[in-house]
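Standup notes, structure subgroup. Blocker cleared on the magnesium ion input:
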Amino acid sequence: MSTTAASDSEAGPADIPAARTVAIIMDGNGRWAARRGLPVEAGHREGTRALRRTVEAGIDFGVRALVVYAFSTENWSRPADEVAALMEIFGETIERELPDLAVQGVRTRFLGRRDRVPADLLEQMENLERTTEHLDTLQLWIAFDYGGRAEIAEAARRCLEDGVAADALDEDALSARLYAPELAEIDLLIRTSGEFRTSNFLLWETAYAELVFTDTLWPDFGADDLRAALDTFSARERRFGGR
Ligand code: IPE
Ligand code: IPE
Ligand code: MG
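Run returned:
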């Protein structure tokens, strides 16, 4: 894993800040729906539109990789009808929204456990990963049944399975066995909806990420919010523990 993602020499448009790898905790769908007297599914559905807007804005702003938190390992504990609706909406997004983004050069991959996802959904996910694998305008990673602790525990398990000796079990050995070793370190982590926590998202990858919190509820998020977060990022001084 590189620690120099933000200082990537690849130049973007002159006025665009240099956050190349951005992660977003897409939170606030339930409150968005509740404020309108709508069922929670309506909030999740509107959230998929915000995702599309945000990915398109990310392309315009020179973001190279976007990692979005769609469903956590803890979200299975929600009411069964909400979980069922989320699975359905996720399937619809794979069928309708993501192919449109593929036309714009977006490669989509999924990050997380794959052993609990319904079989038909898993097939859709793997199919989309296959059909977009040659695209490189923007790398979209969708964290689904994702937990940062689960990811690190899995990486440790893979080290053991690979016979890594105790004295060779270092940061590089673990990094290489995360769900997506090719995913650069996160420059900027955004959380919407006014919550100040990271809820088990990308624990390893965000070690030196800049954190930006916004009150905007996810279904209302769009290009202006992304731009504002990128501007905030560009005004930060990153030190990585140095002088
Ligand atoms: C985020 O929105 C979507 C998921 C966690 C799946 P929420 O559903 O958590 O929205 P709030 O936090 O209840 O408003
Ligand atoms: C985090 O949001 C998970 C996703 C956005 C997918 P949650 O709504 O599940 O997090 P908490 O419960 O507020 O910490
Ligand atoms: Mg929430």
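Discussed briefly. The chain has one domain: 17-147+186-234.
Next: hand off to the docking folks.
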